[in-house]
Each structure stands twice: as structure tokens, then as C-alpha cells.
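Holo prediction. Input below; ligand is DQA.
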Amino acid sequence: MSNVLVLNGPNLGRLGSREPEIYGSADWKTLVDRVLAEASALGIQAEVRQTNDEAELIGWIYEAVDQHKDVVLNPAAFTHYSYALRDAAVQVPKAGLRLIEVHLSNPHSREEFRHTSVISGIATGVIAGFGVDSYLLALRQLAR
Ligand code: DQA
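Structure of the complex:
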């Protein structure tokens, strides 16, 4: 059974109440439930985590590499500036594992600072703009 860590950066725990016109009305628990249901339907062992702490997120990336798990990563605002996260995340593809960057919104249709991702260049693939479905699409790709 394929093993995946679904990792989420800052403010994503506020889903549902945070800018619902951009991120949708589904709350964090709904996201977790939908991701776990999809993973189970696909025969994937998935764990979903969220942190506001860059160091903790980097530690989880190391864990994925050391335990040979693929990663679905929504780096949230870290997407746009965290070279530390990029330096950690590049170890995922270098270990022969897959790293899929996901976003609920489409950052390219938003403010200019969101048009830069320091993660996309080292990701296996990027899925953005489909709300919670972005995560489900990533899991489907990992299951192929
Ligand atoms: C986000 C997009 C980022 O620009 C933003 O900082 C987020 C969420 C998304 O899922 O659409 O926090 O990653």
C-alpha cells in the first residue's frame, strides 16, 4: 500500500472561516475527511497534517524522506518565499519519491506576489485552483 503524507502550511487550519470567497466554505475537518476518504478508496495510506510553523513542516518533510513516503504539499504562504522549505522539499524527488504541490486557489490568478512559487521548480507536479479537489486529484495521480 502506497504511503503518503499530506502536509499543509500556515493558516490552512482556518479553512471555512478564512476568506471563504477564495478558499471555499469547507472547513479543515471536511478537508481532512474528504482526503482520507479518497485515500482509502484508492488504497493509499495517508496522513493529513497542518502547521503554522516552518520548522515543523520541514521536519515532516525529513520524516517523509526517511520513511519513504510520497508527499502532497500545500505550502500555503511559504510557497512564495521559503527557500528553507524548498531545500528540504527537494530531497523528496531526489530520494525517488513524488512531491505534488497543491493549492486550493489558483495563485496565478491572484496578487502578483503569489505568482512566484519557490516549490514548483522541484515538485513532481502542481495542481491548483480546484478547492479540496486539488488534493483528491493529487492522490489519484499518486495511485496511478
Ligand atoms: C494557498 C495559496 C497561497 O498563496 C496562500 O498563501 C495560502 C493558500 C492555496 O491553497 O490556495 O495560504 O496555498
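Helices lie at 20-23, 28-42, 54-66, 83-89, 91-94, 133-143. That is the main takeaway for now.
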